[in-house]
Amino acid sequence: MDTLMMADPPADSQSSASGSGELTPGMVLDGRFELIDLVARSNMASIFKAYDLKTGEAVAIKAPLMSVESDLGGYERFQREEEIGLTLDHPSILRFIKVEREKSRPYLVMEFIEGEMLADRMARIKPMPENDAARIVSGVCDALDYLYRRGIVHRDLKPQNIILCRDGSLRLIDFGLARTTKSRRLTFAGLTSVMGTPDYIAPEQVKGKRGDHQSDIYSLGAILYEMVTGSAPFDGENPYIIMNVRLTGDPQAPRARNPKLTPVMEEIILHAMERSPGQRYLSALVMKRELDNCHMVDLTNRHLRLRAPRPWKSRLRLWQVIAVFVLLQVALFFALLLHFKSHH
After folding, report:
1. What are the residue numbers of the active site?
2. Strands across the sheet with 27-29, in order?
3. Is the pLDDT of residue 274 over 70?
4. I need a surface site. Which of 108, 273, 283, 313 has the fewest CB within 10 A?
């Protein structure tokens, strides 16, 4: 499926992008990719719309910030995204483009798509219509099923990583935290890089486990919860409290926040967000089938079995959790250093 958008021809005079310094629009990367516009920037990378001088097509260029490029864990995350991305071929997953020649610096080349992040649509439409939400999440389930059949887990599902295209299709993006079932490599980075995003992270990931396909299902259930209720499943003063409450209890019943929801949609959400991985959907394909065929869903009154999260006993407990989390990051960092030293 080719969704590359045509760009205007390049200007006559361009500056060359060297291997040092941040990239900016107007530069030509490796004599092939003219950077036209800065599309987005995070604390990890910049994404540019670029003109491919070889093919005459518009592409997206993702380049790590210099601070990430020089960081061992950040650079490894970027490499992993390219390694996994180049193996994927699915209409609902962002297409990566292989660059045959040696690169002067790290960057990814991907299809350029016109659309908006799911996060932006969720911010604009609160809550989203149930049928629209079901259709979008069904499409994500299809992409996840493709990944799982190839032994790949995304591990960072969130509305910012789902792009809704103008033609009605969608793209799942950002495989920096993804891993294969055969992978043994370690990762070190900040809070959102190691453990996913607090609003959507699965309970087992909060406990320090690597996360598997059922962790992705939990995250997708949390996204669906917010889509149809207009609010995240859990609230808290800071990310650590938000992560902790999902260990001790369940979210409020979706229909308590949006009485217009059908019992079937509530059942699907709560099934995906079971705290125990073994009680969730066995696969994304099974979840997709229920989203596509609501008459097949058995209502089990999951909303009657929800348990409210236990409140924090004191501020001391909060700092204990933070201390454990920081120690875990330090341990992962040194383990990663030893891993790289043993292989170089």
Report:
1. 156
2. 15-17, 27-29, 33-41, 45-52, 58-64, 108-111
3. yes
4. 313
